[in-house]
Design the sequence.
């Protein structure tokens, strides 16, 4: 049901009056909530100028916020690149003609999709600290990236696989009939088209990765929340520091999800693929996880109709 | 292995995961349905309030929300959802704050799941409801939402699985869940770190796998046949 308007009739005079009353009630409730927050802020002194002035000083941005943003983006970028490469390998392995390869890849994917990212980060962090020769200062970064890569490469593997299965059978048959081997068909016909079709889903997975770098806070990776905490202990402005960190995160992720929507719209206009274009929103509706890609590619239910 | 499970109270830790999951699922379902109704409603203002809620919450990291409930809501603004007289004050407080954070975060995803369920309903259903004279509220209650929920089982189930795994973030504010215990294992028994990880990871596989299976069975059984 794409057009929402069908849920209700064009409002007549009485309905319009009712809607106006509802709108006023909604706004009043929202204002009441805001007023309560402001009142609490005021009562606990959060609105004092001293708590906010650090944010107009360059040193705050230079020492805390910009390094935080850079560390978020750095971990996200490295994780995205490695996950993508690994996901391609996993997808090829999961579709392989050799059964043991297929099983190994399936076990890997199913296991790492089921384990929370944080558990993997904590494990990697301590594992590196005790067993590996990596410098201590690197361990949080390596742990964040490892956790993100293990989980997201599994998810992206499923995205690619779904993209391949959403292609019409004729693509594969045409490839086989001109004498390509099954693995050549996958490599040069199916996977490239699957990637094109699934590009919006892949871009929106980038949002998930960026958001999940925040888990690094728990293993002391100096990303934005860790920096906000450092700033707060320096300037005694807990509430403003966390609010600013939240705003920065929301700006980054909202921007990225807009990109995903753009990509989706563009793909629908002129994608060079035989497959159905995956929806950026379908996967984002899955919080951080679960079995999102299973229906992202689709039976067309919630993918096409938006 | 049994020794390890006993020493670090891993069963209690997983019981905590289950409790966090169930309470947060309940509250996020309530909040999420409410937000979804706002987004589907004919009132523009309510629609945009719902949309802003989803966009804000969905783009904020869960870690920030959970840490915020403790440091900002409780620490600075004085919201205290537990009684100081109780002997388990700190435990209760952290648990309830975690449930609060998990609920408001996942409500945004529940809302989107319900909307995608509503999207699976053919136009004719809503048109038929209108043409027999049902108001918006009546058609929502008797026609749209019942079918919408049945169509939303898969995304709702995915959100539930994600929620189960996301409860580990509660360890950031000291809730004694498996992530918290893995930290302890790593600190006090580094020799069995790998075993500890394997047991905890397996625990999550055991928790999430049946949910996934039940969901796919349910979604094909409950799907509205068309």
Sequence:
């Amino acid at each position: 049901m794409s057009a929402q308007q069908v849920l209700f009739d064009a409002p007549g005079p009485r309905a319009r009056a009712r809607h106006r009353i509802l709108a006023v009630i909604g706004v009043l409730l929202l204002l009441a909530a805001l007023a309560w927050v402001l009142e609490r802020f005021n009562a606990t002194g959060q609105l004092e100028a001293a708590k906010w002035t650090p944010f107009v000083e360059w040193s705050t941005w230079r020492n805390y916020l910009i390094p935080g943003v850079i560390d978020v983006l750095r971990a996200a970028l490295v994780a995205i690149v490695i996950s993508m490469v690994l996901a391609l390998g996993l997808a090829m392995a999961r579709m392989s003609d050799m059964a043991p390869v297929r099983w190994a890849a399936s076990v890997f994917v199913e296991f790492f999709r089921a384990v929370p990212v944080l558990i993997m980060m904590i494990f990697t962090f301590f594992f590196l600290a005790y067993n590996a020769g990596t410098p201590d200062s690197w361990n949080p970064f390596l742990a964040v990236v490892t956790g993100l890569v293990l989980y997201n490469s599994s998810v992206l593997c499923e995205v690619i696989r779904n993209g391949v299965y959403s292609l019409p059978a004729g693509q594969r048959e045409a490839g086989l009939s001109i004498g390509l081997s099954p693995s050549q068909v996958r490599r040069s016909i199916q996977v490239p088209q699957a990637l094109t079709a699934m590009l919006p889903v892949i871009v929106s997975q980038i949002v998930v990765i960026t958001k999940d770098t925040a888990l690094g806070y728990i293993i002391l990776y100096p990303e934005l929340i860790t920096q906000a905490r450092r700033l707060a202990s320096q300037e005694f402005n807990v509430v403003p520091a966390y609010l600013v960190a939240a705003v920065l995160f929301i700006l980054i992720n909202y921007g990225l999800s807009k990109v995903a929507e753009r990509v989706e719209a563009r793909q629908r206009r002129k994608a060079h693929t035989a497959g159905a274009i995956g929806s950026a929103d379908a996967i984002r509706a899955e919080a951080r996880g679960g079995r999102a890609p299973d229906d992202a590619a689709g039976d067309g239910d919630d993918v096409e109709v938006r | 292995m049994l020794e390890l499970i006993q020493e670090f109270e891993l069963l209690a830790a997983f019981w905590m995961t289950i409790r966090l999951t169930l309470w947060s699922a309940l509250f996020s379902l309530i909040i999420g349905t409410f937000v979804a109704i706002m987004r589907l409603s004919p009132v523009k203002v309510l629609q945009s309030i719902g949309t802003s809620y989803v966009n804000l919450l969905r783009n904020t990291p869960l870690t920030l929300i959970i840490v915020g409930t403790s440091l900002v809501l409780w620490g600075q603004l004085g919201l205290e959802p537990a009684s100081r007289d109780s002997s388990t004050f700190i435990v209760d407080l952290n648990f309830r704050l975690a449930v609060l954070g998990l609920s408001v975060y996942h409500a945004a995803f529940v809302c989107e799941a319900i909307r995608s369920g509503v999207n699976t309903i053919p136009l004719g259903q809503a048109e038929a409801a209108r043409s027999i004279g049902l108001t918006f509220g009546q058609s929502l209650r008797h026609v749209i939402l019942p079918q919408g929920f049945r169509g939303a089982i898969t995304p709702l189930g995915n959100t539930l699985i994600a929620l189960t795994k996301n409860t580990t973030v509660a360890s950031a504010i000291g809730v004694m869940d498996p992530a918290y215990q893995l930290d302890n294992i790593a600190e006090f028994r580094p020799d069995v770190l790998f075993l500890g990880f394997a047991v905890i990871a397996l625990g999550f596989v055991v928790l999430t796998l049946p949910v996934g299976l039940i969901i796919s069975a349910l979604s094909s059984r409950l799907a509205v046949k068309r």
